[in-house]
Specification:
CATH class of the largest domain: Alpha Beta
Number of helices: 16
Number of strands: 10
Mean pLDDT: 92
Strand order of the largest sheet: 1-2-10-7-8-9
Helix content: 40-55%
Strand content: 5-15%
CATH architecture of the largest domain: 3-Layer(aba) Sandwich
Order of helices and strands: HHEHEHHEHEHEHEHHEHEHHEHHEH
Largest sheet: 6 strands, mixed
Radius of gyration: 18 Å
Shape: globular
Number of domains: 2
Length: about 325
Amino acid sequence: MTQTATEALPPEVFDEAYRRVAPLVHRTPLLHSTSLSNETGYDVWLKAELFQRTGSYKVRGPSNKLPQLSREEQRAGVICSSAGNHAQGVAYAAARLGIPATVLMASNATPAKIAATKSYGAEVILHGTIWDEANAEAIRLKDERGLTFIHPFDDLELIAGQGTVGLEILEDAPDAHTVVVPIGGGGGLISGIAAAIKGRQPEVKVVGVESTGAPAMTLSVERGELITLDENHCAIDGLKVMRVGEKTFSIVSELVDKLVTIDDERIFDAVLWTMSRCKLVVEGAAAAPVAALLEGRIEAEPGSKVICVLSGGNIDLEHLRDRSLN
């Protein structure tokens, strides 16, 4: 019989994950937003993962996964593929644990993300022009070099690490009504947060936000089966995904209360709004929950405590400059 999400990820899994993750990551703050509260009529708080090590939540999953590898696997090293944030998370966690790391990135990846990944000590190999091509090469090299592949999202140990964000939210806001989470990179963050929260306080609502141009999770849940998009019109790196994971699809289908999609333009507007009104520099994916709130897509009683997960702050400043000047 197939395990349910709550069976595969019971509360104690997240407690154990937090013990592994805590020494390697920051405990990020939960910040009140008067501006968003006034705009929406809710009591809005921001989980600021942009202040996390490497600039995003993506360091949490590897910080849980890598310590559980065997000594032989750790000595041989790990390999991953990523557009940037997962690459930095794996590289940082591997460096802290003394594990060799190899990272495959597309040749057109953001130079700042390539440089940051190298700065953590990883070997960076550029291959192909899209993530799928880099990922295929990572899988080939895994076998050739005898490395352990660290999946960017569809791995229960990785998901448990990402879910430590949810534990921190419940500790800091035990009276939370709704938690709004971006869905990008396959759904690992929302899967972990939903499982961690629902295992302790099932009455808390969890809402996922995707780009209208790449609604892979939304369409999969609506159809009741995992689908691959025929085309992708999303311009935001962190939300640009053609197919979510099998495990993440199962968890989201079971535990997430609602999925909404927002146009890229509104998400980009929310990046600028968050910078202007909240004085926080967030990347596109991280602004998606704010965009959903500003667009009136989040339903809660007036005055309810709503948490927006700002997943990271590794914004492409050149892209931001170009958009601002147009």
